[in-house]
């Protein structure tokens, strides 16, 4: 996996600053270019010049991490700007935005809307970074999409331990035996992941293995999210990676997605990987960036 462009959103709150620091750490690890954009859900009357502060923050991150940082001039259309810029990015990093505007209440929070509209992986940072991720928990379900998920996770942090977790869901049938032995499951995902996970600590577990955590059955839509959150705590994972299938707005509003349910439950950061994601090549990504930046000034 080759991460070349990372987009991070900040409103200079403490939570958003954690996101900037995490984005910079990943950019340094992958020698990627980091673009930062100011986006506030509610106008900050105490901030006289957000563009100047964004430029200053970009210079600080560039010096501290030895990376290239571009500050992007903000506009009143934060959501649309982020969606456009994310088309050329390999990763969008932000804090868990929970604001829900009254006039767009039916669309959900800022985070809900971006999860539906953004096509690249999204990293929701909930904790202050203390270094690179040490242990990642990847939620899998014996599908081809899970193979892409494992591949992405394998390349995100090369030195971290990787645990694959299958939360059994009685509502879904994948065509795979639910009692597949752990060693067979690991071989299956190694094959799907093209051996990217070979040579690193890799552990496979299932939700039935977490009965010690008093979660023993799947009874509703949110149960898989609870299973994953319990395993995340037990495994002391500092990042959970989960796939996401984009749903229609009405379906999403009424029922919510598993990823949306997991974000407030997990105590770790959460990376949401769209099932339909295809990483743009370097040339395509640069062309997309030039296109989407038309009318958005770099500072």
From TrEMBL:
> Ranges for the UspA domain?
6-126, 133-274
Q: Which protein is depicted?
A: UspA domain-containing protein
Source organism's superkingdom?
Bacteria
The UniProt entry, under SUPFAM superfamilies, shows: Adenine nucleotide alpha hydrolases-like
Q: Which family does it belong to?
A: Belongs to the universal stress protein A family.
InterPro entries this protein is in?
A: UspA
Lineage, uppermost ranks: Bacteria, Pseudomonadati, Pseudomonadota, Betaproteobacteria, Burkholderiales
Q: Which organism is it from?
A: Rhodoferax saidenbachensis
């Amino acid at each position: 996996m080759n991460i070349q462009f990372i987009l991070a959103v900040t409103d200079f709150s403490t939570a958003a600053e954690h996101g900037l620091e995490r984005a910079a750490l990943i950019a340094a690890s992958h020698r990627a270019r980091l673009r930062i954009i100011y986006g506030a859900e509610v106008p900050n009357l105490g901030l006289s010049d957000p563009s100047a502060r964004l430029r200053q923050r970009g210079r600080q991150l560039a010096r501290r991490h030895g990376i290239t940082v571009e500050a992007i001039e903000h506009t009143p259309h934060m959501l649309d700007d982020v969606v456009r810029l994310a088309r050329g990015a390999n990763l969008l990093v932000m804090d868990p935005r929970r604001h829900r505007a009254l006039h767009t209440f039916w669309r959900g929070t800022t985070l809900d809307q971006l999860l539906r509209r953004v096509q690249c992986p999204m990293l929701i940072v909930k904790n202050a970074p203390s270094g690179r991720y040490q242990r990642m928990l990847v939620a899998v379900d014996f599908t081809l999409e899970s193979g892409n998920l494992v591949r992405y996770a394998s390349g995100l942090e090369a030195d971290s331990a990787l645990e694959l977790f299958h939360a059994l869901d009685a509502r879904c049938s994948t065509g795979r035996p639910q009692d597949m032995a752990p060693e067979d499951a690991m071989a299956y995902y190694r094959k799907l992941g093209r051996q990217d996970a070979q040579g690193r600590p890799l552990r496979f577990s299932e939700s039935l293995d977490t009965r010690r955590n008093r979660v023993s059955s799947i009874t509703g839509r949110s149960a898989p999210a609870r299973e994953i959150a319990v395993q995340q705590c037990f495994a002391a994972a500092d990042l959970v990676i989960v796939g996401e299938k984009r749903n229609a707005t009405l379906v999403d509003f009424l029922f919510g997605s598993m990823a949306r349910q997991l974000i407030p439950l997990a105590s770790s950061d959460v990376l949401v990987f769209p099932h339909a994601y295809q990483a743009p090549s370097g040339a395509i990504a640069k062309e997309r960036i030039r296109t989407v930046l038309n009318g958005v000034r770099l500072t």
